[in-house]
Structures are given as C-alpha cells and as structure tokens.
Amino acid sequence: MYTFSKFRLSMSLFDVEGVTSFLDKWIELAVANEVQELDFNVEANGVSRYSLPATIFSAKFVTTLKLSGCNLEQSSDTIRFHSLKKLALHRVHIGEQIVHKFISECPSLEDLILSRIGDFKRVCVSHAPKLKTVTIDEYFELESIEIVAPSLQQCTLAYIRKSCVIDMAGCPHLNSLKLRSVDIEILDLISKIPLLEKLIIQNCDEITEFEFSSNRLKDLQILRCYNMDGIVVDAPNLLSFSLECRDVPYCFSINGSSQCSCKLKFLIKLDTEGDILILTWFNIIKEEFLGVAHQVKELSMSINIMTPLDSFSLDEFRNRSPSLPREVENLIIDVWNMRNIPTSKYAALLDCLLWVCFPRILSIELKRSCFPLISIECLELTRRKHLFYLQFFYEMMINRDTKCCNSHIIKCWRHYLKDFKIDCFIPYKDPKPHHVDNLMAELPGLPRRNYLISSRLVFLFTY
Ligand SMILES: [Zn+2]
C-alpha cells in the first residue's frame, strides 16, 4: 500500500452526483493513509454540492485540514482531530454548532480561517489554548464575534459590518490586526488591544479620519482607503509605515521613530487640468509627504494621464517648490497613457520627477497599462514603448550637460548626478530580475520572450 502525508484535490464540477462515490473513496484512502495534510476543494457549479462523508471525522492524524466548496454535516458526537493545528474552511456549508465544536474539541489548533461560510451569524472562539492566528472573512453576515484565546497574536477581519459586535477582550497577547473591507469603528476596536504592534487597514472606504497614538505600534499600513481625509499618528516606536492612496489626505502627520522607513504609493489620475494637477501632486508629495517622512524606502507613483499634458515645465515647478529634492531609496514610476505626453515634454517630466526626489533606484514599469489584456501584439507594443522611453531616459542621462540653471541657487539633477547605470530588467512572467551590465548594448541579443515589464536604473547623486 502507498503511504502519503499530504493529500490535495481541487476540482470544479457541474454535476457532483456522478462522482460522489469516487470522491468518497479518495477521502477514505486519505484517512486510511493517516495523512497529515488534507486539502479538499470541490467547487460545484450546478445546484447540488458535494457532502463530505462521515469518514472525514476519523482523520485523527490530520494536522492541516483545508476544505472548500463542499457541505460538512456532523454525524458523530465528538470530533477527534487531536493533532489538528490548522483549520481552513472556505465556502463550506457547515452549521455554527459544528464550527464551535471544531474549535473547542481540537486542543492543538493554532491557525483558524473561516471564509465565506454563509448563513453564519455568530463566531464564538473559546477553549482554544494554542490558537495563534485567526482569519474571519464573512461577507457582512456576522452579528457577533467573540474570541477568547490566551495565545492569540494575529487576527484578520474582512467584510465585517458596523453592527457586528466584536469582543476580543479575552486575547491579552493579540499584537497584530489586519482589517480589510470592514465598516466597523476601527479606533474603538484598536483602543482595546493594548499590545498592538502591527496594524493593517485595507480597502476600508468608510473610514475618513485616522488619529491614533500608541507607544507600542511598530508597523502601520493604510492601503487603498479611498475616503481617508486625515492621518495623524503619534507612535514614537513606529519602524515602518505604508500608505497607498488616490487623493491626498488634507491632514497628514506621522510621528514615528527616527529609524521609521516609509513606503508611499500614489495613484494619480489626471483627467482635467492635467498640467496644473501633475505639478500640484508633485509638490504635495515632495513637501507634505517626503518632507515629514524620515526615510522613504519606496515612493511609487502610478500616473494615469487622461488629457494631453503640454504646458508643464521645470521652471513652473521650481517656482512652486524652491527646495532641494528629497532623498528616496526607490522610486517606482508607472505611467498610463503616455501618449498624452508629447515627446517634447519627456525631458520636462523627468526634470520634474527628479525635482521631487533623488532616488537611488528608479524603476520604470509598464506592466499595468497593457497587462493583463495579454496578446502578442499588446506585448510587442509594450515592449517597443518601454524600449523607447528607456532609450530616451538613457540618452538624457548620458548626454547631460550642465549649462542650464546658471541663475539658480538650487540646480537641476544634472548638476548632482555623479553616476548611473541600467541595472536590471524584469521580464514578463518571470519575477526574477535579469541583471545586465549594459542593457542598451545587450538588448538586441535578448530572447524575444523576454518582454520587459520593468527596468531599473541605479543612480549616485551627491548634493
Ligand atoms: Zn540644470
């Protein structure tokens, strides 16, 4: 007889009736083999769903149980998963009572994921002495969540509505919280988590202001909360801050540790008065964000140019922002609809970007303007565009002369750039960067499948 420690089955069916006995046999075989990891995903597209056989309750050696898309009805009084450490239920039809039994009768449980269970009103976690992480993603159905878990450190809540009553007072060691697409009172919840060190707030459109102070908080991420108007954080031990936003918050202040590193991502859409707006954005990013952040590890700008930009210039920007560029570790630029910038304005765009900051690394991305609508023509077009911009910027760097800026105290990047190189590119469908000594010379010899999606230039600026 074969033995195996892991059994994984993933299939999508229209009609489950014809294959039920076959699926039951697989479960029996897995249980008879005393598998430790059982991952069973049966997505039924028709009316009926696959119901797991009672045999599954005898899988007493299983340490990881992942079930997705099926029904689970209890047939025995006791659940004997004594070794179960990880339980993940996704779109499983299961009664509240069985879930609560699972939790209270699996004393080794460390990781619990409940996702899109449906018809679920109440999650009650108790008698889970070893539980370390919990994820509850319930699509606005839940009325209450009560967790009593003395070892719990990490909790993720997604799609929880305001009326849901959340009680995590029984989790004295909770230190990491992720909230995604929730409309709950966030400040009220986090004020009851005294050891909170890591907080992620993502896609929470209901939250408009975030004013928080904490001596323990070390990592804060506010991502894609598109109605956020104000962020005021006083956290002297904060080591890492990430922000991804579409509109500039009216009020922004982060008081973190002196070693706090920041990752900032701005989604900039220029649909009216693009010329004025792009300079306003650059100015705000430079003065309000880079000006208050200690160390900016990553500044990412995704610029969608909907109307032609033809009148902006470095002189105009210089008047608005008469200060030296800020230092940034990594600047990532992703321009959509580059065709709305006439070729004669490419230099002005680069001048303005390098008036905002001096990056050590500049990454030019083109992946999102075309992908994921993939066709060979599209890839080829992207490849040609990317090469064109890259070549343009490369030539500007190589052929820089410093006869400009004579009458100005603060000069443009050309006067401060000591050295640069094209370091690597990232090919489509291959996340590994390809390092090159001289991309321009090596490009003609590259295999055609290596469509570029991102290329990286390394700079050395000295003030
Ligand atoms: Zn100059």
UniProtKB/TrEMBL annotation:
<dbReference type="InterPro" id="IPR055411">
    <property type="entry name" value="LRR_FXL15/At3g58940/PEG3-like"/>
</dbReference>
<feature type="domain" description="F-box/LRR-repeat protein 15/At3g58940/PEG3-like LRR">
    <location>
        <begin position="23"/>
        <end position="157"/>
    </location>
</feature>
<dbReference type="InterPro" id="IPR053772">
    <property type="entry name" value="At1g61320/At1g61330-like"/>
</dbReference>
<dbReference type="InterPro" id="IPR055357">
    <property type="entry name" value="LRR_At1g61320_AtMIF1"/>
</dbReference>
<feature type="domain" description="At1g61320/AtMIF1 LRR">
    <location>
        <begin position="165"/>
        <end position="259"/>
    </location>
</feature>
<dbReference type="InterPro" id="IPR032675">
    <property type="entry name" value="LRR_dom_sf"/>
</dbReference>
<dbReference type="Pfam" id="PF23622">
    <property type="entry name" value="LRR_At1g61320_AtMIF1"/>
</dbReference>
<dbReference type="Pfam" id="PF24758">
    <property type="entry name" value="LRR_At5g56370"/>
</dbReference>
<protein>
    <recommendedName>
        <fullName>FBD domain-containing protein</fullName>
    </recommendedName>
</protein>
